[in-house]
Design a protein that fits this description.
Elements lengths: L4 E5 L6 H14 L6 E5 L5 H8 L4 E5 L16 H6 L4 E4 L2 H6 L4 H13 L3 E6 L3 H5 L3 H12 L11 E5 L13 H19 L1 H6 L2 E4 L7 H5 L6 E4 L6 H8 L4
Parallel strand pairs: 1-2, 1-8, 2-3, 3-4, 4-5, 5-6, 6-7, 7-8
Bound molecules: phosphoenolpyruvate (PEP).
Length: 250
């Protein structure tokens, strides 16, 4: 009932020529895939990749955005600038932004509300550190990040929100949460959406898993009832790994 959503986060990789070649290959190899697809190149390659992806079934995503439309924000990129480049989805609250660049739930919430107001879709990332998991605080951490991140977001706007559950200890480490572990948190995430917006909205919410998703573990993860897609980092940088993930079949 929920359309699976596979998104690639290219992070700070690739110059424009490399990004163009990868986008061209993905456009060709992913034509006809029935899932919702997105790639998020670095800001510097958005225009190049956007031109390649025009008319394809792959959406153009951005990895971050400023909490303001314009003004004195040195080094920042506004949602209007992203839209001008053809971006339709923005990843917000990625753990690398939270933990390496000090982004707080309050700041992420400002960005989420502005992105939605400007008509962008949002992938809101949540997830616990290893320390938090070992202290049995997974549900509490995820609940706080969701409640704070979604503050002021209306039920109508929720259709433009995807939640990505990304345990921080599984990102870029090669350690994937087991399908059981991931599904348990995804179930909690859906319950939190139900608490905030009601069961109908919770049923519709697409919840991605992120953290070392690879061709050989995607089927096991996507086979779970509450796992609706993936946010993919490392494996999104090559067609050999991203294409089989994007083509997964339950
Ligand atoms: C990510 O950065 O969101 C991610 C899931 O990375 P990786 O797939 O490399 O763990």
């Amino acid at each position: 009932m929920r359309t699976p959503f596979i998104a690639g986060n290219w992070k700070m990789h690739m110059d424009r020529a490399e990004a163009k070649a990868l986008a061209q290959a993905m456009k060709t190899e992913l034509a006809g895939v029935p899932h919702k697809l997105m790639v998020a190149p670095p800001f510097t390659a958005l225009e190049t990749v956007g031109a390649v992806l025009q008319g394809s079934n792959i959406l153009l995503g951005a990895q971050n955005m400023a909490p303001a439309t314009s003004g004195a924000h040195t080094g920042e990129i506004s949602p209007l600038m992203l839209k001008d480049l053809g971006v339709s989805v923005v990843i917000l609250g990625h753990s690398e932004r939270r933990h390496s660049y000090g982004e707080t739930d309050a700041l992420i919430n400002e960005k989420v509300r502005l992105a939605l107001q400007e008509g962008l879709e949002v992938i809101l990332c949540v997830g616990e550190t290893l320390e938090e998991r070992e202290a049995n605080r997974v549900n509490q951490v995820v609940e706080t990040q969701m409640k704070e991140g979604l503050k002021g977001v209306t039920a109508d706007q929720l259709e433009n929100v995807t939640i990505a559950y990304e345990p921080v200890w599984a990102i870029g480490t090669g350690k994937t949460a087991t399908p059981d572990d991931a599904d348990a948190v995804h179930t909690t995430v859906r319950e939190i959406v139900a608490d905030l917006y009601g069961a109908g909205e919770a049923d519709k919410m697409v919840i991605q898993y992120g953290g070392s998703v690879k061709p050989d573990n995607v089927k096991g993860l996507m086979g779970r009832d509450n796992i609706d897609g993936a946010l993919v980092g490392g494996a999104s940088l090559k067609t050999e790994t991203f294409v089989p993930i994007a083509q997964f079949d339950r």
